[in-house]
Amino acid sequence: MVEQDCIFCRIASGDIPAGRVYEDDQCIAFRDTNPQAPVHLLVIPREHVESLDDVGLKDEPMLGHLMRIASRIANDQGLAENGYRTVINTGASAGQSVFHLHVHVLGGRPLSWPPG
Prior knowledge:
With 116 residues, this protein is α+β, with helices and mostly antiparallel strands. The protein is built from 2 helices and 5 strands; from the N terminus they run H-E-E-E-H-E-E.
C-alpha cells in the first residue's frame, strides 16, 4: 500500500529522488538528507508500514530482510571494520519523524552511548 502523503512512499515509488545506494523488490536504501554521522543511510520497506508497532507475524520476513540489507550496505560503505549502529525509532518521543518504518544505519565516527 502506498500512502500519497508519506515522503518515504513517494521515494519508494520514484516520485521523489533520493541518493539510493541499494534497492530490490522489497526495500530501498538511501542517504539521509539530515545525516547524524558521516555515513547515515535509511533502509525502508517498499510497502507502507507506519512503525515497528504496526508489524505482524506476516512482516517477520520483511523485518529480517531490512536488517540483512542494513548489514550489507554498512559493509559496502566500509563501516564493518570500525563498527556501525542500526536504529529503529518507534513513535514521536523516540525520535520517529517520518511515520514509515525505517532502519537507520549510522557510522564513520565513534558513536556515544547512551544515544539519547
